[in-house]
Amino acid sequence: MTEAIMRTERLNKAFSLGETIYAVSDVSLSIPGGRITAIVGPSGCGKSTLLSLLGGLDRPMSGDVFLENQSYRSLSEDGLALLRRRKLGYVFQFFNLIPHLTALENVMLPMSFIGVKRSDAKARATELLERVGLGKRLSHVPLQLSGGEQQRVAIARALANSPALILADEPTGNLDSKSRNDVLNLFEKFNQENGQTFVLITHDDSVAAIAHKTIRMSDGQAVEDQ
Ligand code: ADP
Ligand code: MG
Q: What is the position in ligand 1's atom list of the atom closest to the CA of 51?
C-alpha cells in the first residue's frame, strides 16, 4: 500500500442559487503518492469543485485538505498561496497559457514567482519543453501552437517547480485523439521516470484507464474503487 500524499476529511461545498446544491458532499478520500489517480463522473457531479478544493483555489464550507500532512484550514491566505506555488501544479482543459508569452516564458513564469534565478529558470524550462517534445517550439506563442502542443506546454509549466502533486481538470477534454494520447503518454512517462503524482479529473473512462486508482463521483459524493 502506497502512502497518501494528500487526504481530505469530510469536505463540503455548496452553492445557493435559489436552492442549495451540494457540489461536494462529505468527501473523504486519499491520493497515493507516486501514482496516477483518476476522479471520474458525469458532467455536473462536482469534479471541478472538488479539484479547486484539493488545489487550495477555493475554501470548503467544512472539512479540511491535508497535503503531506499540512492542513489547508490552518493556513492563512498567504500561506495557502505559497503552498500552491511550491507544491502544486495545475493543468486545465483550455490550457490557460499567457497568450503574449512564448512557450519558454510560460514555463519560466512559475519559477519567477518563487524567485528562481532567470538563467536557471530558462535552462529548466528548456529542458522541460524538450521532454514534452517541444524543443523546437520554444519561441512560439500559444496562438502559433496546436491544442495538443499548448497542453504539452501547460504540462511543462505545471512541472516547473517540481510540485509534489499535479492536478489536471479534463486535461484531454479539448483535444483530438492523437493529442489526447500524447498527453496521456506524458503523464505516464513523468509518473514512471520521476515518480510524479497526478490527479486526473475526467468524464472519459479511457483516460481513467491509465490510472492506478479511481475515485468515482456522483451528485457530489465520492467513492474510492477498491
Ligand atoms: P463537474 O466538474 O463535475 O462538471 P462542477 O464541480 O463544475 O461539476 O459543478 C458541480 C455542481 O455545482 C453543478 O451543479 C454546478 O452547476 C454547480 N456549481 C459549480 N460552480 C458553481 C458556482 N460558482 N455557482 C453556482 N453553482 C455552481
Ligand atoms: Mg468540470
A: 6
Task: Write the pLDDT tens digit of every residue in 69-125.
Answer: 999 999 999 999 999 999 999 999 999 999 999 999 999 999 999 999 999 999 999
User: In sequence order, what are the beta bridge partners of 71?
Assistant: 66
Q: What is the CATH number of domain 4-98+164-224?
A: 3.40.50.300
**Full-model pTM:** 0.94
Take atom 1 of ligand 1 and give the residue whose Cα is closest. Answer: 44
Residues 6+ apart with CB under 8 A from 67: 5, 6, 83, 87, 88, 164, 165
Q: What are the pocket residues of ligand 1 if the criterion is a CB atom closer than 6 Å to any ligand atom?
A: 15, 17, 21, 23, 41, 43-49
Give per-residue pLDDT as tens, 13-25.
999 988 999 999 9
> From ligand 2's centre to the CA of 120, what distance in Å?
35
Please report, for the chain, the start and end positions of each structural domain, with discontinuous segments joined by +.
4-98+164-224
